[in-house]
Amino acid sequence: MGEGRWVEVRVSTHHGVDEKKCVKALQQLRKELAGEELPTQDVVEPSDGSVAIAVALMGAGAEQTVVALLGDWIRRRKHPWTVTLTLEGDSIEVDRPTFEERERELAEFLTRH
Q1: Higher pLDDT among residues 21 and 56, named by residue
Q2: Are 85 and 60 in contact (CB under 8 A)?
Q3: Which of 25, 70, 82, 85 has its CA 20 to 30 A from that of 101?
Q4: % of the chain exceeding 90 in pLDDT
């Protein structure tokens, strides 16, 4: 990944989740992030079948924007996919059922690094 702080957003395709649907959903998330002028880039995919993008945390309020967009994006998913965010080697998992209770924790995670 390029310079700056980048957070990896990874969706697990385990538990019968269709990889093509994950890819399409991440493409939609990328469009929404681009609409807020947050750069994204591809992440080399591991052999575990997950799909991922990286989001640059640039500019004032970028962390809050990512949390808000991610929350909206997760709530629109039909299935409670597990989404893992990784920043500087530290990770946090969120999904639709737990997003409301973990939203503050996610915001703190993104701002403490």
Answers
A1: 56
A2: no
A3: 25
A4: 46
Domains annotated on the chain, with CATH: 6-112 (3.30.70)
**Under a CB-based contact definition with an 8 Å cutoff, are residues 81 and 16 in contact?**
no
Query: Over the Cα atoms of the chain, what is R_g?
Result: 13
pLDDT tens, position by position, 37-64: 999 998 876 657 788 999 999 888 899 9
Query: What is the C-alpha to C-alpha distance for residues 113 and 111, in angstroms, rounded to an integer?
Result: 6
Tokens of 102: 């973990």
Rounded CA-CA distance 76/68 in Å is: 13
Residue with token string 């500087």: 88
